[in-house]
Design goal:
With about 500 residues, this protein is an alpha/beta fold. The protein contains 20 helices and five strands. It folds into two domains: about 375 residues, no CATH class; about 110 residues.
């Protein structure tokens, strides 16, 4: 594939990836997690770090970057735009891999896989650190290959070491990827420089990674260990006996399969059977060392995350926490396609790659249409619009899950009263509502978002003898109710 052809193909991939990531970027309502992080970042730096420690689940790098953005603009478009740009930049980094010797067909397929992945598009439009983690993982792969090709030179090793230090400050899962990268890099160093120098380089690089881990532990992780026991992660953490290997493999098998589909193209993942078969050819004697190491990196990093899930330290499955694995999986698939297209011959190789790229992009777009990453998660904007169109008489009770989004959109007032979380004791919601609303109130409004159905049902049922509820808005993940008090005579009838 010629240089000009490659640049044109890269432009097509980047334009499509950019359109998919920027489409309706500010239209969707911010849901609970997004609103929380945007509100954290609005505070002064030291207070933002303190909030992340106590009420968040991420390191400090992304919230601090968001803090800089919100000093200029705190709109929904402004706070979501960095994630979209990070995600598109990750695609661009993979497309730059030929600069360090990776074959152009391999880099093109890898970039295309990332560009049209529904999971990448989904989190390119969320105010969280996951797109930044994907960008850092892609940049670390680029620095990894560059460092190996530089032999014993220090100039190209510095970006690799910087990546090892920064990774723990961006996302905790990146520590697992950095460990896999470090081990793979050490293998290449030992081959280049012998055991003594190779192990010395490994020790120095491991010290850099350890320094990053120590810093992130001091800043945030030391306060956030409880996150690994969160109820929403239990499905993705092994719960069986540690030495029950059949149970562990039964846990890992289906989750690895769904993870691969999630990281690549969802409904279009069947297309990736072709480059996956081509990966088998990477064991041949003519394959260059870097390609073998990159393939090994994909397997090793996935295995380390799997081991962490079995040890109940980190989740494994089709969830956002594992998105950082997407670049290494995409590169492995790209190398598989490159090995397969080598069998076609030089004349037909470019045509075969162009045809496969077209099928890949079409399948990815179809997967995005079916997965619909642009749909509302918690449509609090519909609730706000409905409330603003009506005369509000009486207090407005805000369920705790709706509070961050309302505060982000700067909706509130003296009539708003805010409930607390009683997830472990849902019977306490009704007494809290009565205390906040007051016995003299004849009507009230209730705003729900990010609510467990059983909690909402329990609250309405418990209040049913004294209040009559009318749903005003029932949107996806959010709702608005109008309530009228029932006097004692009417309740007897």
């Amino acid at each position: 594939m010629g240089r000009r052809t490659y640049l044109v193909a890269c432009l097509v991939v980047l334009l499509l990836g950019g359109e998919l990531r920027l489409y309706r970027l500010a239209d969707r309502s911010l849901w609970l997690d997004e609103a929380k992080y945007a509100l954290f970042a609005r505070r002064p730096v030291l207070e933002a770090v303190s909030r992340i420690r106590l009420a968040g689940s991420s390191p400090v790098a992304y919230p601090l970057l968001l803090n800089l953005v919100e000093r200029v603009d705190d709109s929904a478009l402004a706070v979501r735009l960095p994630s979209a740009l990070f995600s598109l930049a990750a695609v661009a980094v993979l497309l730059c891999l030929p600069c360090v010797g990776v074959p152009r067909p391999a880099a093109l397929v890898a970039g295309a896989v990332l560009a049209v992945s529904p999971s990448q598009v989904r989190y390119a439009q969320e105010v969280r650190e996951y797109s930044l983690s994907v960008l850092v993982a892609a940049a670390m792969i680029l620095a990894f290959v560059s460092s190996l090709r530089d032999g014993n030179g220090r100039r190209r090793t510095a970006p690799f070491l910087l990546g090892l230090f920064v990774a723990p400050l961006v996302q905790y899962g990146l520590v697992l990827f950095a460990a896999a990268l470090l081990l793979t890099w050490a293998v290449g160093r030992v081959r280049d420089s012998g055991w003594a120098r190779g192990l010395l380089s490994f020790a120095a690089a491991a010290g850099v990674l350890a320094a990053g881990c120590a810093l992130t532990t001091v800043l945030t992780l030391g306060w956030q260990w409880k996150v690994t026991t969160a109820w929403y992660l239990r499905t993705w953490l092994y719960a069986g006996p540690a030495l029950d290997f059949p149970a562990a493999f039964a846990f890992l098998g289906p989750r690895l399969g769904t993870l691969m589909s999630y990281l690549t193209q969802g409904y279009g993942s069947v297309v990736l059977v072709v480059p996956a078969l081509g990966m088998l050819l990477l064991t041949g004697p003519t394959v260059d060392r870097e390609s073998r190491l990159l393939l090994g990196l994909a397997f090793l990093s996935t295995a380390i995350v799997g081991a962490a899930a079995v040890a109940r330290l980190y989740p494994l499955g089709p969830i956002r926490h594992d998105l950082f694995l997407a670049p290494t999986v995409a590169v492995a698939l790209g190398l598989g396609w490159n090995a397969l297209s080598d069998r076609v011959g030089r004349k037909g190789r470019s045509a075969a790659t162009a045809a496969f790229l077209g099928v890949l992009l079409a399948a990815g777009v179809l997967g995005i249409v079916r997965a619909d990453p642009y749909r509302e998660q918690e449509d609090i904007k519909s609730v706000i619009a409905a409330l603003s169109e009506r005369p509000v008489r009486g207090p407005v009770y805000v369920y705790y899950g709706a509070q961050p989004a309302l505060r982000f959109y700067k909706v509130g007032g003296p009539e708003f009263v805010y409930g607390h979380s009683h997830r472990d004791h849902p019977e306490e919601y009704a007494p809290e509502f009565r205390a906040l609303v007051g016995a003299e109130s004849e009507e009230a409004w209730l705003i729900f978002s990010h609510v467990l159905p059983k909690e909402k049902r329990r609250l309405l049922d418990d209040l049913g003898s004294g209040w009559r509820f009318q749903p005003v808005v029932t949107a996806r993940g959010a709702s608005l109710y109008h309530a009228r008090a029932i006097d004692s005579a009417e309740s007897l009838r």
